């Protein structure tokens, strides 16, 4: 089975072409990740830190199955599985880890932040629309208005400076 078919099987989501509904009818990701539904594992962190780091379990690893994650909108599951394909193990679990800091709680928070940021990125890519002629016209008008305002400000400052030097006599 190809990697793409495995990922579709893992997340049990519709094909990517079907997973892109109209922007108005999309269930949005709220940013809330239920901590009680995510498996957390701790291990020894790599790198410097002395005796404390060699004895402490500060590296955090969170695991969950995309198919079982009811807190992720269904239209995001397949694109998320494709984005995180290198982080999905043979059991179909997404594994996100962090050993950025020396504190366990900070590493747990970092894992959840990484996951949340990835989900938001996938959602943003799905909802991104192409620029229309109307959009380009609005942007052009705004640029012209900004240029006009800048020139008027330059002219006003120039007039102010020149008025200071005119008819200056004692």
Topology:
Elements: H1 3-11, E1 39-43, H2 50-55, E2 59-65, H3 74-83, E3 93-98, H4 104-127, H5 133-165
User: What is the subunit arrangement here?
Assistant: single chain
Q: What gap, in angstroms, lies between the N and C termini? A: 94 Å
Q: What integer value in Å does the Rg equal?
A: 27 Å
Count of structural domains: 2
H/E topology pattern: HEHEHEHH
List how many beta strands DSSP finds: 3
| CATH first level of the largest domain | Alpha Beta
Structural class comes to mainly alpha
Question: What general outline do the C-alpha atoms trace?
Answer: elongated
**Mean pLDDT across all residues, rounded?**
83
What fraction of residues sit in β-strands? 5-15%
Tally of individual helices: 5
pLDDT below 50 for ≥5 consecutive residues: which ranges? 13-25
Please give the largest β-sheet: 3 strands, antiparallel
CATH architecture of the largest domain: 2-Layer Sandwich
How does this structure look, described?
With 170 residues, the protein is mainly alpha-helical. The protein folds into two domains: 3-127, Double Stranded RNA Binding Domain, CATH 3.30.160; 132-163. 48% of the residues lie in helices and 11% in strands. It is built from five helices and three strands, in the order H-E-H-E-H-E-H-H. The protein has helices at 3-11, 50-55, 74-83, 104-127, 133-165; strands at residues 39-43, 59-65, 93-98. A three-stranded antiparallel β-sheet has the order 1-2-3, covered by helices on one side. Helix 1 runs antiparallel to helix 3 (74-83) and helix 3 (74-83) packs across helix 4. The radius of gyration is 27 Å and the shape is elongated. It starts with a helix and ends in a 5-residue tail after the last helix.
